[in-house]
Queue: 4 jobs
Job 1
Amino acid sequence: MTVAAMAARLGVAPATLRTWDRRYGLGPGGHTTGRHRRYGPADIARLERMHRALLRGAAPAEAARYARSTAEDIEPPAETPRSSAHRIGRGLRLPGAGRRARGLGRALLAMDAAAAQEVLAEAIAEDGVTRTWELLAGPVLAALADRGLPPVSHLAGQCVRAALAAAEVGAPLPVTDNPVLLFCADPGALPPQVLAAALAQRGIPRTILLAAFPAEALAALVRRLSPAAILLWAGCPEQAEPRFFHRTKGRVPLFAAGPGWAEIDLPPQVRRVGGPGDAVQRLAASLG
């Protein structure tokens, strides 16, 4: 395999492969009659191990040592201590980021959706949906927004949605017929989708709806579905509308979630909650 083909396979620049060859001895081992160097199967396997270790947050020298190892059952190197604020990839910064955040940042900056989804899936399997959002996906998305990288942010959102959908596969059967109604003003907002996936994993049925419901339609929906709870997510103060809760009828537990409610006065019957993790805990507690 040529240098250009290998670079395309890994999603890196050819210059990166030449650097790995020069610094760590991970170059192609074969030559053609035209004196062009080509990567053989063993070379490809080493570079793929190097790439996987880097995506998991290893330092380049540690990743190279791992790549040169021949034992397939050797664990990828653990993260190395870094300063409290350090760069990820080519300029992405996260305060106190761990190895998974560095790996997710590198994968997204390389536009490697498969690697990004692998990192997210591993995190969800080990830490759960809400902790993955709060400690990994949310901070990385915020750092991408700060850098002003719309294409990468769009890919990141797609990867998070795919990971959330995968997390719902095999979720337990609903423990009740009464769903939690999740309302939000922004149909593309990720936190309500994180909350929905976390509820599904607990066997709690849920439906995401737009907040712009006419009063009559909302009252009819509540009568028909007999929801276990109603939650309105507000990501910013402009989305926080206390009058929404006055349109609900009946004795349904009401929740206001998200940072948009921080400075908003709520009706006495509405419970204020924080992010998806806090909302899941409070909703589950209210449902008994």
Job 2
Amino acid sequence: MPQWNQATIVGVGLIGGSIGLAMRARGLAKSIVGVGRNQESLVDAKRVGAIDRSTTDIAGGVKSADLVVVCAPVDKIVGLVQEIDRHCPAGTIVTDAGSTKSEIAAALDQGLTNARFVGGHPLAGGAKAGPKHADACLFVDRTVVLTPTRRTDAAAAEAVEDLWTALGATVVWMKPKEHDEALAFTSHLPHWAAAAVAATTPEKWLPLTSTGWADTTRIAGGDAALWRQIFTSNRGHVLKALDKFEKVLAALREALEAENDAKLEKLLNDGKNRRDAVGN
């Protein structure tokens, strides 16, 4: 029996499209509606089966929804949720997939009339964007962070947890600030480092790159405007992560310059051991 009568996905790209496919595969909604600005992307989403119908009108897309998932750039989420709130039925559960949480939580913690908002962030993605690459199993065995506040409706938060659990994810609850501090190290700093490595490499040596360079810089291929928004919305925590990163780089350089091979190997082993602890 479907849990939702109408689930509306605002922003049907890789993440939104994968949510639609996953919900459909598990029979979680009677109807799945896609809302977006790009008509071609909406057509692709319907073609792959991520949504039943689409619209570019957000008011029309949410007027009958009992669940809305916002998969949009972080600087658009607050405005979208506020617009959804003006047009959705009273009690509609609204959640998001934004990569930073503090600013969003602070802006939406009060002032909503109809929507019951629950902050969320699925730690999943892929090298290719768009609904053509959506995957119904994208969230299986992946972590989804929920960031409710003291004002968050408890029943709504539990319903969003049940949704992600049904999609195969492991749900972790964190405070918005705690989430942003952690993700500065585990997501934002890696992208920063990947972009720096790619930008540092002389173009004439690119034909000599192999798997090491490709693995290290893969995420640097992400949308620059999207990542600029993520960095600036989590500026304080990213800067603290960079402080620590720069200290480690300085220690590695100092060991190399001083011909201190033992210290250099120890620092490299520190990194290896931390990486090995992840286990994949």
Job 3
Amino acid sequence: MEELIVASNSFFLAGHLNPDGDTIGSMLAIASVLKRLGKRVRLFSQDPVPQNLTFLPHVKAISSRLPAGRFDAAILLECSTPARGGALDPVLKRAGKVVNIDHHKTSELYGDINIVEPHSSSTAEIVYRLFYNMNVNISRREATCLYTGIVTDTGRFHFPATSPRTLEIASRLLETGFKFSRVNDLLYATKACESLKILGRALESLELVAGGRLAVITLREHDFKAFSARSEHCENAINYGLMPPGVKAAVMFREEPDRINVTFRSTGAIDVSAVAKSFGGGGHRNASGCRLTTTLEEARARVLTSLTRLLA
């Protein structure tokens, strides 16, 4: 990877659809370092950057329009397949090399260079080590971006993928002097009114099935319309499903005009990524997702059957 960066002059960076803190933070950190090395960089996200991430340095450099021209390298972040990043084919065909950086075990090895580390807590953790191996001194702004990626993808260092190495990297980022307390406030102590309202609707829908071992949350299209809310406003609602005693897994169905987004969470050794993968999705053992182009009722029936079988 280091050789590619040295030999290349132009880079295209993209993350997955419905981007999160890890995707956006990693993208911005890589772009900043590449620009400091004198490289030409274009950043792309097919879906809008979530409102709670707009505080990140240089976030406005991310465009929703595919750039023209050729690139020496295209770097895809947290995309288990190229399609996970949206309609990227026109640019990938014009890229000299494709780099796949991901921490999901379901990631396909589609790149010319594949840096896939399922045991890493986040893509930001992988990116930090890449910089470390290149002897790059990380700036405060880059540290802000990488910390955002790590803290959000570990659930504030709560998820099982958090390791001693994760905490060591977070410590090194704090040593740069960036205002981590402000970052935490913006991420976790500041919520849009739409987020609070859609959370209430999500909790109203919560039901326990499979003998109380499975929590189910359902958000319909009209729920979002009622509060002028977007998908980003319910990003963390799924985590509440694991709170009732006895629950081992949670699933959230989110109805959109042309698809049903399904998010999975679980505890311990229960591997919900196997269920997600069976429906064309992927992710981690305890945190995964997929998309279905069916009705909400059909999606619920199919997914709940698989989850009930998993928990039997």
Job 4
Amino acid sequence: SVGGKPPRLLNFVENGSYLICLDLSSTCFRGAIVNLRGVIVEKIEVMADGRTGEAALELVYQLIDDLRQRVTGPILGIGIGSPGLVNTDLGVIIDAVNLDWRDVPLQTRLAEKYDYPVYIANDSHLSALAEYSFGPDDTRNLVLIRVTQGIGAGIVLDGALYYGEGFGAGEIGHVVVAENGRQCSCGNVGCLETVASVKSILQASGYASWDACCQALTEGDTAVTQIIQQAGAYLGIAVANLIGVLNVRHIVIAGRIIQTGDLFLEAVIQTAQKRALPSIFAGTEIRFSSIDRDIVLLGASALVLSQELGVI
């Protein structure tokens, strides 16, 4: 299991060894060198440019090769956050639609190529691990919801990541919340991702970029304001269900959606409050994450540290 808090890392020589960490969850693949204190010492990124299948794998190799050349000490292991369903026991990408990876034995392929321990998990799961390990809450239980191009959640229960029996715990993005809504890429209609993700907000607003959409929100664009509030309300439905099922008191929201600020967060809180049992909701905190866009990279570092050194 993974548990503990960052102070345990103070027992280690800061730059005694290093971790290579990758975040493959965006259109831009990101990599980092992380020391034993969980501090990122160098970052690089490469545009995926729509690469899928073997071409995307070659980009992963390229990223690791580049990072290896920059490391100034021994490498403890490699940690990777991938989109989609990931068998964390075997390091197999069961299904990552955007990368066109199905049953890809990524852990085995990388371990054979680089001769380092390799650990792989879903990007939202690793985000939850990062929040648990490096965030401000003194708790053994939390749910982190990552809202970017898609939506996914990671769940920490009693200090351990809960992956689910089929490794799909937290796949709330494909739970239907909007009856008679738009068709989702998964085949269902009205999934949470179709009404509350960054991608869906952009489509509804008509803006070409997320920065432009957020700027319009700041300037008081009425249409964008309504779209953001509605998106927050839909996420609030999912949050109420998580509260009812898990009774977890720390719900954290991460990802690019944070740029929408209090308007989105308040809509989430208000809707969740209306839909959850009052006595349970009363003890629940819903907030934005204080960790920036490196959250998946930090989660990958925490995964390696927990497996190799028994900390975090």
